[in-house]
Amino acid sequence: MSHLSEMLRPFRARLGAAIALQAVAGICSLLPLIALAQLADSLRQAPPLASSALNWVVVAVVASALWLCGQTLALHLTHQVDADLCDRLRVRLAEHLQRLPLGWFARLGPEGVTRYAEQDVRALHQLVGHAPTDLVNLLLIPMATLAYLLWSNSALALWCLLPLALGVLGYWRLGSAHYREDVAQRNGAIQRLFSDYSQFAGNLGLVRQFPSAGIHRRVQEAVQQFDQRFSHWVSRAGHLAALIQVLLSAPWLLAWVVLGTLFIDVSEVGAVQVCGFLLLVRAMAAPVLALGHGFDALNNARASARRLQEVLSTPSLIEPDAPQSPRDASVEMLDVSFSQGDVTVLKAINLRLEPGTTTALVGPSGAGKSTLAGLIARFMDVDSGHVRVGGVDVRQIASRQLQQHLALVFQQAGALRLSLAQNIALYQPHASEKQIRAAAKAACLDDWIMGLPKGYASVVADDVRLSGGELQRLAIARALLSRAPIMLLDEPTSATDPQTERALRTALRDDAAGRTRLIIAHRLETIAHAEQILVLCEGRIVQRGCHAQLLAVDGLYRQLWDEQMSTADQLEFVS
Amino acid sequence: MSVLSPLRHLPDQARRVLRGALRWMLLAAVLDGLAGLALVPLILAWFDQQSVQPSVLLLLGLTLLQALVSYVAQRRGYLAGAGLAAGLVSQLVQQLPRLPLARQGQLEDLVRGPVFNSMGIPAHLLAPLVTALVTPTMVVLGLIFIEPRLALVLALAYLPLFALLRWAGRRSLALEQLRQQVDRRAGQLLQTFAQQQALIRSAGDASQGQLALRQALHEQHQATHRLNRRALPSGLGFAAAVQVVFSLVLAGGVLAVAAGQLSGALLVAVLVLLVRFIEPLSQLAYLDQALRMAWQALSQVLTVLAMPTLHSPHPGEQPQDASLQGQGLNICGEGGEQLLKDVDIHCAPGTFTAIVGPSGAGKSTLLALLGRGMDPQTGAVRLGQVDIRQLSEHTLANHLTQVFQNSGLFAGSLLWNVSMARPQATPAQLQHAAKDAALDEVLSSLPQGWHSEVGPGGALLSGGQRQRVGLARALLSPAPILLLDEPTASLDARCEARVNRSLQALHGRRTVVLVSHNPTLVRGADQILVLEGGSVSGCGSHEQLLATHRWYAQFVEQNLPGSH
Description:
- The complex is a heterodimer of chains A (575) and B (564).
- Helices cover 64% and strands 10% of the residues of chain A.
- Chain A has 20 helices and 10 strands.
- Chain A has a 6-stranded mixed β-sheet.
- Chain A starts with a helix and ends in a 5-residue tail after the last helix.
- In chain B, 61% of the residues lie in helices and 10% in strands.
- The radius of gyration of chain B is 34 Å and the shape is elongated.
């Protein structure tokens, strides 16, 4: 509960007002019924009616009007608070997500992120929007009704409390540890069904090929298990829930009142009072019924609040207290090691990128090259060792400054839901249109963009969809436009059409002057010109040097080179 | 009724359970009404100081019966809810794989959202709905025998109440849906933001990307506030009307008694009855919104179930060999554009066919047609001399395996992902497939080898590793025909060479059709098909095309390693 109350703290005033209004409305909802009960006596006698009778009618009408106003305002206030809370949470989430290590996202998958972004924030809506008013009704109305009924006839009132007490006990039992395991199993089966189905529905082409195997079978099993667990839950807890529903239903309560009058002499009670009981006993029970439903929402909201709090307190990459500025465009890694889970991805990495030079990072796939680039950009913190940019440890550089010092072109190139011009100018928001177009031209995008109906103003995902190759070229244009002194390129041309790849490589090479570059590439002939080549294998740097030096030695580089060149030889070039 | 027409597609099992529960609920509601009516003689007897014994016994008897029936109905309702969800999901699992490729989008949230929302109908919403409809009707009918004027008044009061309920319900549903849309959009913004982290971080805090998100979230917030304000009048519309009706009847009745036209005792009895039967109606107002949304959710699922699917006969015919042919294939896209025009392709059994061409030429579409991901508008695909539409689903799955660009891994162990193709595979067969797909290096680099967890969508593996798992799975499959779409795009040259060798080794054993940008893979094919702009512009062996086909020669030259 502490998480929830902490999140609600800024909204105390408005919530308090809503609760007060709801209290007034609650009492007013009872007055017409009380008025009727008081009227019953004078109605029984022959006309003319006492003047008090008409007064009671007036009371009933006025109370109805007051109830309407109070209830409306109260609900409006709670819904306002709910909207403000959700908005605040989302903004906080956005800020925090920005600083979480990338490994966190990979582990969760898109499903997990959806959970936080949508479901959990929405679960709070049910709670904040309705719970305060429901709680007031739950507490106030039964107490007020009970007070009136006790004043009317205490013995009968106490008799009427019995089914309500049983109902409360029943709900308490339902929420107790006795059933918790069944509920947990039921919920577990539901979650499993969700995730299995979601994977199934996202890969229907594969399902067709392996019918009744793999994910197809798994989702069928998940359905069966869900059915089983749910039926089990119904047989255990469902009978109690159904029993409580019946116990608190209108016909049963009214019959209970009538039963009570059998034991207590009716003439003593007075028909009038009995009518009062008949009218009001349901008002006592309705909130108790809400208890049953409300618990579910409350539990969901508590779980959601806890999960959100967990995300918000997941350690982020820590900003330095006294940030220093990088002094030049060099990059160093000193004895760096990094592991992901139990897999050691990088071991004892030592390297230096001299300012203004191009360094290539090559090696078999899965060797850890992309991870290494990610460590320089401080997407994750190293387990041991130091990463230095411009002579300063990256952990001592303010993240904003580090981000402006590096330009990244990564394999999973993406685009934001902005116009193409804005996407290209992401690192250089003040770039002129001429500069943007020049960058796009160098990245072989200008012709294509000018061919679109909205040109540079086309918004990604709304007006235009980019293929993998186009996204990469966009990323290259972005990097070319930025003035960052260090550029990290991870397979910058892997998804492009072979026709344009050559032009892109030329553009990148022309732009290289003055910048420190790290290029990760598979095709060795594209990086043979680099001043330094590092060969990474199974997380270690096994060779370093320039192309000629490495070819002279009988090592992994020459092996890779020979392999690639021999496949080239197989292609006879007929001119 | 058009409103109830989606119910036609409800699976049989779910329908049966629902009908059973509904019957019990109806009975409970009828008894509820009768028990309510039994109050009138009781109250009259009290007021007139007569013997109450018979009335009390009648009331108690009816109520006990009602309680029993209602209990059974509740439990049936819970079970019907689960039955509905299970039935719908089973049906979806059966139907969805038969959908054509184009319709397969956005089905992933169907269970988490609509199916589970519709579960609430039998469990919580149906019983109060039935009660709210049946009980007041019973009461009005019964009153006709006691005091026809009051029965008429009540019937007249009932009708506008219902109309008001529908209006208020529709309006709040529309507003609630708008609110949910706003909510969902905000959630999506956040989700996209999370997925774009690598990019957004590089762009810096004050960049337009971050600002755009803040702005968008702010707009959503404002929209929510606007919706809240709009919901004010209709929010309590129905409940207010109920109060008004009660006050009117009270005031009017009191005046009638004062004028001597009505017996006071009867007025009290009827007012008690009114309160009694207004109660289920107000509950209905509270539930109406939930009911409408649940109904919409159910309709959504049933609409998906009603979508036209690719029909396969059962048991269907048997292909005579492992050849694959396409004749005169024509297909248009969703927007009416012609994706393929009169395409012919013939792949003899055991041969290696490559399909090349500029991006957007229709290569993936052709491959999809060959794998029966959709049916062409005109023309036919023949597998083993038999029209592919005459093959049963199992026959097709046994004869054809496809590797898509998105390698399609599921959360689970590597072993499970690969052995999906042949569940009874021996370790030797698994190792062999892994070696052919260059997966063995991956296995030795992972500490848990075959039992390593790959994460949702294979997220714990790199792009190249994922692709090799998909390849190993295809190579393990016993199907004689293999369709591959860019199978080595994420692999380095060494792995690519290994895969190429494995594919070449399949000559004579399996029919391979490959789409690729890589001349190294394409070069060893028995025939190469060049697609440009949706039609075949050249077909022949590597040497033939190199000599005669301009685009192909360019394609080979520009992608030759070592040429700058």
